[in-house]
Amino acid sequence: MEVELAIMVLPHGEGLPLPSYQTAGAAGLDLCAAVPADAPLELPPLGRALVPTGLQLAIPAGFEGQVRPRSGNALRLGLGMINAPGTIDSDYRGELMVLLANFGADPVRITRGMRVAQLIICPVARAELVVVSTFDDTLRGDRGFGSTGSH
Fold first, then answer.
1. In the 8-state DSSP scheme, what is residue 142?
2. Is the pLDDT of residue 99 over 80?
3. Which superfamily is assigned to 6-123 in CATH?
4. pTM for the complete prediction?
5. Residue ranges of domains in the chain
């Protein structure tokens, strides 16, 4: 499935590559940090920061953007996202920001153009809530956390 995604480059995003798929089978578009070249972001261990991308999106109705961490950054640098995946609603028109967290033991420097996250565009189903007084029985029932596969 292909969907057209309108994108605007903000002044501080000028000169950076547009989000792109790195391989033919990639699910996510890589997002780059739009921090000033002379002022990288320093993330201390357990620190977090909103990293600008210099981009605004117009996600079509019926879709959402999911911002996810990059596995290579997680492995090499300890970078992740507290709210992974972050959701971008189709009616949001502000700058796309990435909430990065340093889960590693060493400080991490976020530099201009560094690939910091990936964006996945997904269809969204909207639920119509129906209030009921009972549910159908299931094998699992109301057993919660850690209960699957334990019976």
1. T
2. yes
3. Deoxyuridine triphosphatase (dUTPase) (2.70.40.10)
4. 0.87
5. 6-123
